[in-house]
């Protein structure tokens, strides 16, 4: 089915959001016409890539997003 089996995404990560954060993600996903999970995945990988590359501009943007408390651990 896949040309390269390493491209199969089989490791889920659970992330919890409050009502306002969820609404923000759903609104942004709807605006961009993508699924909310795909949006969160893209944002997470973008932030991680910027941090690794040490891209100052993207890292600053990522830090601003983190400061707005979009990324925090879930309480189980």
Question: What does this 3D model show about the protein?
Answer:
By secondary structure, this protein is mostly helical. The protein has a domain at 30-69. 58% of the residues lie in helices and 0% in strands. The protein has three helices and no strands. The protein is globular. The N and C termini lie far apart (36 Å). The mean pLDDT is 81.
**Category from helices, strands and their pairing:** mainly alpha
Order of helices and strands: HHH
- Describe the sheet with the most strands: none
Beta content: under 5%
The percentage helix is 55-70%
| Unreliably modeled segments | none
Strand runs, count: 0
C-alpha geometry:
globular
Radius of gyration: 14 Å
Mean pLDDT: 81
Number of helical runs? Answer: 3
Oligomer: single chain
The termini sit apart by 36 Å
Features:
single chain; 76 residues; mainly alpha; globular
Topology:
Elements (H helix, E strand, L loop, with lengths): L18 H14 L3 H18 L2 H12 L9
Summarize the structure.
The protein is mainly alpha-helical. The chain has three helices and no strands. It has a domain at 30-69.
